[in-house]
Write a sequence for this structure.
């Protein structure tokens, strides 16, 4: 999905975003995965601008139900 646009939906709004990194490790903690912890399913990390476009207050950024799809 890297370098592809997706549409992210939350709070009755949607915005498009460019995927710049994708975590596909369910193992983690090894050199191939830069010793990062395993990724959860359907986790999305985004810039503050994306969350602002979706109307998400900063105090709700830890956990939020969203959907995403190819545009």
């Amino acid at each position: 999905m890297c370098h592809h646009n997706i549409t992210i939906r939350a709070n009755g709004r949607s915005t498009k975003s460019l995927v710049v990194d994708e975590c596909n490790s369910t193992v983690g903690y090894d050199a191939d995965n830069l010793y990062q912890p395993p990724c959860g399913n359907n986790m999305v990390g985004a810039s503050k601008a994306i969350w602002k476009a979706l109307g998400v207050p900063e105090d709700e950024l830890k956990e939020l139900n969203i959907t995403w799809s190819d545009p």
